[in-house]
Amino acid sequence: MRVLVVEDHRTLNALIASGLRREAMAVDTALDGLAALEQLAATRYDVMVLDRDLPGLHGDEVCRRTVAGGAGTRVLMLTAAGTVRDRVEGLGLGADDYLPKPFDFAELVARVRALGRRSTPALPPVLDNGDLTLDPNRRVASRAGRRLDLSPKEFAVLSHLLAAGGRVVSAEELLERVWDDATDPFTTTVKTTIARLRGKLGQPPAIHTVREGGYRIGER
Q1: Exposure of 122 by Cβ count < 10 A (0-12 exposed, 13-18 middle, 19+ buried)?
Q2: What is the average per-residue pLDDT within 34-54?
Q3: Does the reported pTM lie above 0.85?
Q4: Which Pfam families match (predicted)?
């Protein structure tokens, strides 16, 4: 899942972003509304966590333009004002969900995940291929009944490959959907992560390399 966090409070912005990355999400950040719109124009995001009370270009306007753009990005609006009227106004702007500050981080994660499921085609609750299974909500993966100890990026790569249903997934697609803007597009991080993941999955090989294509899970 690719998420954009738009929050002008630098510390809170960093905390939300780092927490979501620990949940195996690819996260970019913006500190104001104009920067958010620039990133939305360049990258497809599943979910935007949007502070309503932004300086400069207000969060309301960011929400309006995002919805009008028709990109399908789901909007979770945050605000320090938690009255029913505020919630109604926020949802009336086109926001998909609303969370007043202060909030419990577990609830934020649950709401982001729920919106992410709405922004993409429906997937089964548990992804599987052969003896390999992955539960995105519980963040548990196993092979032949053996639980796999995966890093957040390894888990996200495996999840994306399984969700592809045998389709070949390019390194560029993995870089876009699993990593964030801070990643060098010429890096070998995808190849390195795939290599580590293969080692943890064991034999027989589950991830196949398609020459000049990318990677896929399933029979050749």
Answers
A1: exposed
A2: 92
A3: no
A4: Response_reg (PF00072), Trans_reg_C (PF00486)
